Amino acid sequence: MHTKTVAELSAGLQQGDFSSTELTQAYLARIKDKGDELNCFVTVTADQALLAAAAADQLRSDGKAGPLTGIPMAHKDIFCTKGVKTSCGSKMLDNFIAPYNASVVERLNEVGMVMLGKTNMDEFAMGSSNETSYYGSVKNPWDLKAVPGGSSGGSAVVVAAQIAPISTGTDTGGSIRQPAALCGITGLKPTYGRVSRYGMIAFASSLDQAGPMARSAEDAAMMLNAMAGFDVRDSTCVDKEVPDYTANLADSLQGLKIGIPKEFFGEGLDAGVADVVQAALKEYENLGAELVDISLPNSGLSVPTYYVVAPAECSSNLSRFDGVRFGYRCDNPVDLEDLYKRSRGEGFGPEVKRRIMIGAYALSAGYYDAYYLKAQKCRRLISDDFKKAYEKVDVIMGPTAPSTAFNIGEKSDDPVTMYLSDIYTIAVNLAGLPGMSIPAGLVDGRPVGLQIIGNYFEESRLLNVAHQFQQATDFHKNVPKAYK
Amino acid sequence: MSLDVSEVEKIAHLARLGIDEKDVPEYALNLSNILDLVEQMSAVDTSGVEPMAHPLELAQRLRADVVTEADQRERFQENAPKVEDGLFLVPQVIE
Question: Is ipTM over 0.85?
Answer without folding.
Answer: yes
